[in-house]
Amino acid sequence: MGAEVRTENITKSFGRQNIWQNVTLTIPPGEVSLMVGPSGTGKSVFLKCLIGLLMPEQGHIYIDGTDITTCSNKELYEIRKLFGVLFQDGALFGSMDLFDNVAFPLREHTKKNESEIKRIVMEKLELVGLLGAENKLPGEISGGMRKRAGLARALVLDPQIILVDEPDSGLDPVRTTYISQLFLDINAQIDATFLIVSHNINLARTVPDNIGMLFRRNLVMFGPREVLLTSDEPVVKQFLNGRMIGPIGMSEEKDEAQMAQEQAMVEAGHHAGGVEEVEGIVPQMKAAPGMPPRQAIKRRQDRVREIMHTLPHAAQVAIQNDLDSSAEDDDDRTEVLPAYEGSGGSHRGYDDGGYDEGVTTPHKHL
Ligand SMILES: Nc1ncnc2c1ncn2[C@@H]1O[C@H](COP(=O)(O)OP(=O)(O)O)[C@@H](O)[C@H]1O
Ligand SMILES: [Mg+2]
């Protein structure tokens, strides 16, 4: 199973510009997590902090139990080997063919001989569907292929944690779904911890086990996918539906006057953008047929069962429905189980704010 990533109250600024503050979360090992947030909210900065390329001014980051904000450079070097990182543009060397690009980390960081390197490179290229393209230069292939080559390179050192920055950038919606499928398939095969950052709504709705959101220098929430996808937070609803109406503005957050003006526009019949309101949860994508089952699914079910009582009611109902339907799959029963009726509306924890066993809701009122 992949390694755990945990941040404790981290704050990052550049000079006088604060990017985000007091971010506390635990990324469950072996599961696929996603961080969303409008452009410029510091998602890439967050990833860079996790691999120790940037250092937060405050707080701690524990990777597989080691605090990388206080460890030695030698320890940090070792910790970095746990990561595979897929940067936004694939970050391939333009003058090297795909084989040499994917082989690069093996030649840099290991003493493996060329026949071992060849075996590993070909295995990873096969995993991402690029067998046969090994002699192509990055400039000769499509953006989607470049991303898959970047992913193959991120996999060669057998990472326990895979960080992915904006996998959909430059890709059409179909290619974005293909690469998302690949993440789930790879998760099924190697059980690594995934953290993807993206502002892609489809990806958020269908791919991850857990979702977090950065907005206005804060982590709005982080927890099981059902929490964010059923959230009534205006900023979350606006984001998930791609609308102009809501707290997120053109460049930064809006003021009250602008929000009122826009609301009046919509009431007068102006289209707020986005598509029709999508409510609730669509099913999560699965690993492709022929893949081993994702071990993350069972682990997550057990984990979520434990914290369920701390979650908001709508999320509890969605989780229970999911548990019921997967129990049906297991038993191969055809009867429909009765819908979960909740706990009479009493749910503790969520409204208290604060960090509560895996769900972070520190800034409820946006
Ligand atoms: N190395 C840096 N030095 C100074 N400012 C930076 C640096 N990296 C990022 N920033 C600033 O941090 C903010 C968040 O950037 P980023 O993490 O790239 O946002 P996102 O990935 O969410 O779109 C931006 O305002 C950006 O200009
Ligand atoms: Mg970014």
TrEMBL record:
Keywords associated with the record: ATP-binding, Nucleotide-binding, Transport
CDD domains: ABC_Org_Solvent_Resistant
Secretion signal span: none
InterPro entries for the chain: AAA+_ATPase, ABC_transporter-like_ATP-bd, ABC_transporter-like_CS, P-loop_NTPase
Domain ABC transporter: 5-241
Region (Disordered): 324-366
SUPFAM superfamilies (alphabetical): P-loop containing nucleoside triphosphate hydrolases
Gene3D superfamilies attached to this UniProt entry: P-loop containing nucleotide triphosphate hydrolases
GO molecular function: ATP binding; ATP hydrolysis activity
Domain of life: Bacteria
UniProt-listed PANTHER family: INTERMEMBRANE PHOSPHOLIPID TRANSPORT SYSTEM ATP-BINDING PROTEIN MLAF (PTHR43023:SF6), PROTEIN TRIGALACTOSYLDIACYLGLYCEROL 3, CHLOROPLASTIC (PTHR43023)
Name of this protein: ABC transporter ATP-binding protein
Source species of the chain: Antrihabitans stalactiti
